[in-house]
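Hello support,

Our group uses your service weekly, and this is the first time we've seen a run hang past the timeout. The protein is Hypoxanthine phosphoribosyltransferase. I'm not sure whether the cause is the sequence or the server load. Input pasted verbatim:
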Amino acid sequence: MTAATTVLLSEAEIAACVARVAETLAPRLQPDCVGICLLTGGLWFTADLTRALARLGVDLSFDALWLSSYGDGRESGELLLRADLQRPVQGKQVLLMDDVLDTGASLKFARDHVLRAGASEVIIAVMAQKPVARSIEADVVGWEAPLRYLVGYGLDDGAKMRGLPYIGALD
Ligand SMILES: O=P(O)(O)OC[C@H]1O[C@H](OP(=O)(O)OP(=O)(O)O)[C@H](O)[C@@H]1O
Ligand SMILES: Nc1nc2[nH]cnc2c(=O)[nH]1
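Update from on-call engineer: The timeout came from a worker crash unrelated to the input. Re-ran successfully.
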């Protein structure tokens, strides 16, 4: 563990949150639902959530959308679409999965993007949500996070710390 990191949510607590998210989502998901991971940070939550859903008998189609706005900094900046979807979502229910909902700029872009591509419904699941006023809300939230700079479980500090199995705060 990096000395300055305070553990906020342990590996076991993350697993319990993901299981709860999967149980909440499972009854809402249609057989042709397309699960979309917001890269890069959403990868870890998406991997765990898709496996938790599979344990409940839900097998999603899988795709990814690569967005970037924070770069190596700690503030939301210009939002870049680095790589687009690989599969059509026309007429389909979409499940967007990401690590954290902060200002909402990334998920708002992603939701608008898949709606423009013809998705019939968009459900948003995030591992963590910060207490910030914004124009978009998640449908299912794993953990209500404090207003701190988070790392671990996909959340990076200059591309490092994503692989930490817990969520911590640097500040
Ligand atoms: O609600 P917001 O203020 O938009 O912040 C949330 C986004 O910030 C991070 O992405 P980042 O741009 O750092 O890219 P990354 O996925 O490569 O970490 C995180 O993975 C979310 O996608
Ligand atoms: N690593 C990291 N990325 C973010 N993107 C938006 N909020 C955060 C945060 O707290 N930590």
